[in-house]
Write a structure and sequence with these properties.
Blueprint (H helix, E strand, L loop, with lengths): L8 E2 L9 H12 L16 H17 L7 E6 L2 H13 L5 E6 L2 H10 L4 E7 L21 E4 L1 E2 L4 E2 L10 E4 L16 E5 L10 E6 L16 H6 L9 H16 L2 H22 L3 E3 L10 E6 L5 H10 L2 E2 L10 E4 L6 H18 L4
Parallel strand pairs: 1-13, 3-4, 3-5, 5-8, 8-9
Antiparallel strand pairs: 2-10, 6-7, 9-10, 11-12, 12-14
Length: about 375
Amino acid sequence: MLTDTMKKHNYSAGPCILPQEVFEKSAAAILDFNNSGLSILEISHRSKDFVAVMDEARALVLELLGLTGKGYQALFLHGGASLEFLMVPYNLMKENGKAAYLDTGTWASGAIKEAKNFGETVVVASSKTENYNHIPKNFEVPADADYLHCTSNNTIFGTQMQSFPEIDIPLVCDMSSDIFSRVLDFSKFDLIYAGAQKNMGPAGATLVLIKEDILGKTGRNIPSMLDYQKHIAAESMYNTPPVFAVYASLLTLQWLKAQGGIAAIEKINNAKAELLYNEIDRNPYFRGTANKGDRSHMNATFLLEDETQAPIFDAMWKEAGISGIPGHRSVGGYRASMYNALPLESVQVLVDVMRSFERKMTGGL
């Protein structure tokens, strides 16, 4: 059991913080799962107990997102979002077809790179020349594209899409770092994928939601392990699934439902983001890196106005028990990842450190 003195304020961008009860239930299941005398790490994925886990996890995903009975399938696969960069064009881009992509950061550009191996890939807009500090607006999407791909939240650069285009072609979204964090009309999306380790569970599982009627139209010969239809037919058991990662993700989904679902957690996430961004904007020793209208509620990126003061600030947040806030090398500075399980109290600790730093720099007490 973790004690208060051992526990850190975890701002890691991923693998990320998870609810304390998820750690406790997962730990118990490692020793004895469902009073079976076996560990969750050693049970058969074909056992009745684990099939029940997979079935509940898939159903709960659809329930929380409001997609039950709307023609969607939920899958738990391997390979992270990076494998989905490949699977999406394999399953959706027609032979001799083309796809449209919005370039808003490192992961979006990775998806674009893979899509180019399959056919014409149109980048409808990009914020790369501004180091991805904003989300492009007012771009045109080719009506004859097989789909439009976007990334809802950009962990490295701290930007987040606040609205999504209204289009007549399938809309695909990488929601790895903000899935289950805010209320959206998820039925607007035809395919959603998300690596579990950003906001849902431990590393090792990838969630994919697919509107079934968009599949089977490419004319391609798709390798079995990369074919969504085969995974759907096998009920996410085409091969041995990531058993522990699925189980821990189920526990996290159960926790989220008990909090009141996505609408309830969004209010908490909004409060956390408001608290931190207000301090970044108020405090003369810090500045944000993302355009204010595109700021992420999951990943706040900010810099010291004077980088030579970093050793002082770093010592202060470390002393306060804060972990995981150094920024990515592409941006520098700091990145506070405020996923669902991070409590508001942890954000207050960071804000208090920033205020203490200001007093120290100005000669106050």
